[in-house]
Design brief:
The chain has 9 helices and no strands. By secondary structure, the chain is mainly alpha-helical. The protein is globular.
């Protein structure tokens, strides 16, 4: 993997940092970007989230920020030497390739946010949507970029 490729992975990963920071801030009790009276844990409960995720939110741990950090960490790990044994490599590459689905999800999130719901009483302010959309696109891009150089492994292993 080239130095430029690594820099692109880091740059794409960096798009997730505002989202991670915002979600961690909210989980710690911060209110910036939220309408008065809005509670993220209550929103999770209303949407049918598992009790464990609600408990984590109430205790200062946002699972989406943990997942975002995990995606960024995986992308950064793959930019360095991944395990050379095929089973260990597949364990890292499978979630990286699956993570590229965050790109269209982020684009759709951004599109829906740009079109707006028209609700004057939205629970989150206007800058929160773009931060989330950028994070999804950034993490998906970082995972795809970090997994791409390893795609040839199967061909070279099969040929040898």
């Amino acid at each position: 993997m080239t130095r430029r490729h690594r820099h692109l992975v880091v740059l794409a990963s960096g798009l997730a940092l505002p989202y991670i920071a915002l979600k961690a801030y909210w989980a710690a009790g911060g209110r910036a970007g939220m309408a008065d009276g809005f509670d993220m844990a209550d929103e999770f409960r209303r949407n049918g989230a598992p009790a464990a995720l609600i408990w984590l939110e109430r205790h200062g741990i946002d699972f989406t920020s943990v997942l975002a950090l995990t995606g960024v960490a995986l992308a950064l790990v793959l930019t360095h030497r991944p395990p050379t044994r095929p089973p260990a490599r597949r364990l890292l590459l499978a979630p990286a390739w699956a993570g590229t689905l965050l790109i269209p999800y982020g684009l759709l999130t951004g599109l829906v946010g740009a079109l707006g719901s028209g609700a004057a009483d939205a629970p989150l302010t206007g800058w929160v949507g773009p931060a989330g959309a950028a994070a999804f696109v950034g993490i998906g891009t970082a995972l795809g970029l970090s997994a791409w150089p390893h795609r040839a492994f199967r061909r070279t292993a099969a040929a040898g």
